[in-house]
């Protein structure tokens, strides 16, 4: 039944949860982990879960502006620092430990991290008009291109 | 002649953009009263999130737009033991992190027994 699920979460949780009062909750979890790793060690899905958390970035040319996007779930606005000049943008950030008092950890995949990322911009941007929004754990930075770098329309002549 | 000489290239086929699937990383925390599940769901708005319980399975499913177009579907399932109070499940989404709280059934929570002096 459950043994065929490729979802890490359901398998790992099954034992400690269904015997929430058992003394071997930790052992059960560890056994499950060992079993899973031995079976699914080469599965890419599991590899991505066990790798240290990393931030996913993208840089997109949206015509009149460049858009930099970073996935930063759980990062507070106050723990982010942005600086931008005409040619590059630097983002510093930190995700802090989130362990409410009195709780102990049964499974940890999310982790904490801090990072500094500098991205070279392919065209010159207008720094004064740069805007950043943090919404639903995604940071979106819009960098309008400098006047010279703006796309321009090519008029079509008819003969 | 190398094809690299061609300054203009194009494709007759637009790239396909099927929904990508992803397994969100989770933390599971426990205290005497119950469990707390934290899941990273960047880009998922409350409207694009479903949390469903159908005994014994708790399912989380959220959709988020991708910058390159299309969307990513995050999905994760949990099996809840019978010692948990399914009626108590509550969920909250903030900052791209989903928090699900589940209480243990009352008789199973540790309880302090007062000792009366005779």
List the secondary-structure elements of chain A in sequence, H or E: HHHEEEEEEEE
How helix-rich are the residues of chain A, as a percent range? 10-25%
Sheet/helix structural class of chain B:
mainly beta
Specify the CATH class of chain B.
Mainly Beta
SSE ordering of chain B: EEEEEEEE
In CATH's first tier, which class of the largest domain in chain A applies? Mainly Beta
Number of helices of chain A: 3
Question: For the largest interface in this structure, which chains are involved and how many residues does each contribute?
Answer: A-B, 45 and 39 residues
Tell me the span between the first and last alpha carbons of chain A.
72 Å
Q: Output the strand order for the largest sheet of chain A.
A: 1-2-8-7
**CATH fold assignment of chain B:** Immunoglobulin-like
Task: Compute the separation of the termini of chain B in Å.
Answer: 103 Å
User: What percentage of the residues of chain B does DSSP assign to strands (E)?
Assistant: over 45%
- The number of helical runs of chain B is 0
State the strand order across the main sheet of chain B: 1-6-5-4
* Total domain count of chain A: 2
**How large a portion of the residues of chain A is in β-strands, by DSSP E?**
25-35%
Give average pLDDT of chain B, whole number: 85
Structural class of chain A: alpha+beta
